[in-house]
Write a structure and sequence with these properties.
The complex is a heterodimer of chains A (242) and B (385). Chain A has one domain: P-loop containing nucleotide triphosphate hydrolases (Rossmann fold, 3-Layer(aba) Sandwich). Chain A is built from 7 helices and 10 strands. Chain A has a 6-stranded mixed beta sheet, sandwiched between helices. Chain A has a 4-stranded antiparallel beta sheet with strand order 2-1-4-5, with helices on one face. In chain B, the strands form 2 sheets. In chain B, strands 1, 3, 4, 5, 6, 7, 8, 9, 11 and 12 form a 10-stranded mixed beta sheet that branches. In chain B, strands 2-10 form a two-stranded antiparallel sheet. Chain B folds into 2 domains: 172 residues, no CATH class; 175 residues, no CATH class. In chain B, a hairpin with a 4-residue loop joins strand 7 and strand 8. Classes of the chains: A alpha/beta (242), B alpha+beta (385). Bound molecules: adenosine-5'-diphosphate and magnesium ion. The site of adenosine-5'-diphosphate has 12 residues of chain A, from strand 1, strand 2 and helix 1.
Chain lengths: 242, 385
């Protein structure tokens, strides 16, 4: 059974469904998903390719729209927000980590990390402090002026993590964050994510294929053909925590 | 500020691709500017002609002449200040390829009427005194290396024979547009020779040039002059110099219109090429735009980045094109001087160049901007890897 950490849920998902249309055909991707994620949780979402993991993650992170159901994050029903409200909500509440890092190639490490802060009212000096702190956290203080192409994959992913945490969001979503990395780099990234949960009280939702990555997580959920199951393969109980 | 930085860095990210696009736009703008200058030049010749000068010719056709006796009657028309006259000589120097305009004119009245032909007083005096003397424009003299005192022989076509002239003066044009490739000689020399060889053709002039006291009188004077000779054996047609020139220009106007169209076609072609490049570029960056949206940037930001990049590239090309226009026009003035003694690029053309470049950037940017602004985040992110 899915185990909570005793804290109240930060994400509450109820009867979530999503399908895509391909031509005249409708392809169901997520079917009636209901589950909670506790505050401060490190959750791994596993499952075969095409099972809808990314789709679910995108819905929770507010970058895709559900067909049915509600997603409450920190008490806010994000399914009822307009695109504009959603954009503001995302920048305040969610940090993103992607498989291919998604850094802007023409911006330096510093500028990439600074990017989310440009939408806040912070002054240039305040931004600099935040960025320096975030890059220090990921151990890249000596690479501020490097462009992504001048960094290794692992270093790029660390810049991406710095970018994800620089505005101090409560939730981090990571879609296969180690999928493009070698074993050592992947280990470092997972270590870092672990620290973010334990030292900085972040909630992390991570999609992964990698069993070693999943091991780091406190809870593993499986998606199979749009249906959510517990780590033992049984249909998940609708409410997290026993 | 940040967006501007991103736009500039994006614009020159693919060095070769951006360079090729910029050069392409530059060449198109250069061609556009030069073609428009060429067309402008054509009409400029017309505009440069004086509004206070009238030309009287035979009403039937330019090839028929008028009796010299008309001169005194024209002079008596109220509003007429000066009258000169001449013949299109049509002499050939060496062979037909060495074409330049040459006229027989009454020297004193002619140079009074055409102050834009600037001669030193000494040369002017020498020309007046020598019946076989002639004057030529500076550019023409430079072309053949003629010096004062040189003997110039023209083969007559309308007036057969070998005609010899002594170069007595080299004039400069008061303005850039003044014709500096013409030769003028004494009408008396032509007439006296004709009296001996072809008396029937003597005392005939090809055209009268009339100076009026005020430009407003031009229409009135033309009507009065033509009125005097109506129903005579040699009816006249008097028009402003401008209208007279337009008669020459009219037949080539079709060519000018074609050139104008070509100048626009050039812009349309580069527009299509630039649009294709921008679409390709934007397609490659969809995931980046989606990432920015993920971080909370709005469609306005994305639109600004995509559109800005298109404008930066097109305007860089435009500025380069404008910068190249000046050496190109200089090159034309020196290397093609016999066709284009002056090839001045006007300020209007420069503005048109820049407007055309801005339009190329706008049109090329529209579709990618729309794509970038409207792409769904989840869709955009899927395009990676
Ligand atoms: N924009 C889309 N249009 C059509 N089908 C899509 C779209 N996005 C995802 N899908 C389909 O939805 C299913 C789930 O995709 P995804 O969530 O990316 O799976 P996973 O991340 O588990 O590999 C797949 O079959 C995929 O082809
Ligand atoms: Mg996926």
């Amino acid at each position: 059974m899915g185990m909570g950490n005793g804290k109240p849920p930060i994400v509450e998902i109820a009867h979530l469904s999503k399908s895509y249309r391909r031509g005249s055909q409708t392809i169901p991707v997520l079917e009636d998903i209901t589950f909670d994620i506790a505050d401060g949780e490190f959750l791994a979402l596993m499952g075969p390719s095409g099972s809808g993991k990314s789709t679910l993650l995108n819905l929770i992170a507010g970058i895709d729209k559900a067909d049915q159901g509600t997603i409450r994050v920190g008490g806010v029903d994000i399914t009822s927000l307009s695109d504009k409200e959603l954009a503001a909500w995302r920048s305040a509440n969610v940090g993103f980590i992607f498989q291919f890092y998604n850094l802007m190639p023409v911006l330096t490490a510093f500028e990439n990390v600074e990017l989310p802060l440009l939408l806040t009212g912070l002054s240039r000096n305040e931004r600099r402090e935040h960025v320096d702190l975030a890059l220090q956290l990921v151990g890249l203080s000596d690479r501020v002026d490097h462009y992504p192409a001048q960094l290794s994959g692992g270093q790029q992913q660390r810049v991406a993590i710095a970018r994800a945490v620089v505005s101090d969001p409560a939730i981090l979503v990571a879609d296969e964050p180690t999928g493009d990395l070698d074993r050592v780099s992947a280990g470092e990234i997972l270590q870092l994510m672990d620290r973010l949960v334990h030292e900085f009280d972040k909630t992390i939702i991570m999609v992964t294929h990698d069993p070693r990555a999943a091991e780091k997580a406190r809870i593993i959920r499986h998606l199979e053909k749009g249906i959510l199951t517990d780590s033992d393969g049984q249909p998940a109980s609708p409410v997290a925590g026993s | 500020m940040f967006l501007l930085k991103l736009i500039i860095r994006n614009a020159f990210r693919h060095k070769l691709r951006s360079a090729l696009t910029v050069v392409g736009v530059a060449i198109a703008i250069l061609a556009f500017g030069l073609l428009r200058t060429l067309v402008g030049l054509w009409y400029h010749g017309v505009e440069a002609s004086s509004a206070t000068r009238l030309v009287t010719r035979n009403a039937i056709s330019l090839v028929f002449s008028l009796p010299l006796s008309h001169k005194d009657r024209i002079r008596q028309v109220p509003g007429v200040q000066a009258v000169s006259y001449g013949n299109w000589f049509g002499g050939i120097y060496i062979d037909e390829k060495h074409f330049f305009a040459n006229y027989a004119v009454e020297p004193k009245s002619y140079l009074d009427l055409y102050p834009e032909f600037v001669l030193s007083p000494e040369q002017k005096g020498a020309f007046f005194l020598d019946r076989k003397g002639c004057i030529v424009g500076k550019r023409l003299a430079d072309t053949y290396g003629w010096k004062i005192g040189d003997l110039i022989t023209l083969r007559g076509t309308i007036f057969p024979g070998q005609w010899e002239f002594v170069l007595r003066g080299i004039y400069r044009g008061a303005e850039k547009s003044t014709e500096e490739r013409a030769l003028m000689f004494h009408w008396d020399y032509l007439n006296e020779t004709l009296k001996k060889t072809m008396p029937r053709r003597a005392d005939q002039v090809g055209f009268y040039m009339i100076g009026v006291t005020k430009p407003e009188l031009a229409a009135e004077v033309s009507q009065a002059v033509d009125g005097i000779f109506r129903n005579s054996l040699a009816e006249t047609l008097t028009e402003t110099e401008k209208a007279f020139q337009l008669g020459f220009v009219a037949m080539t106007e079709a060519i000018m219109i074609a050139i104008k169209i070509v100048s626009y076609v050039v812009i349309v072609i580069i527009m299509v090429v630039a649009a294709n490049t921008m679409a390709m570029t934007a397609r490659e960056r969809i995931a980046e735009y989606a990432t920015m949206k993920t971080l909370g940037f709005g469609w306005v930001h994305i639109a600004g980045v995509v559109f800005g990049e298109s404008l930066v590239i097109a305007l860089s090309g435009g500025l380069l094109g404008v910068a190249l226009t000046f050496p190109a026009s200089h090159w034309i003035e020196t290397e093609l001087a016999q066709f284009f003694p002056a090839f001045p690029v006007s300020m209007t053309t420069i503005y048109l160049d820049l407007a055309a470049a801005a339009m190329v950037g706008t049109v090329a940017g529209i579709f990618p901007t729309w794509r970038g602004a409207t792409i769904g985040i989840a869709d955009g992110l899927r395009r990676i890897g």
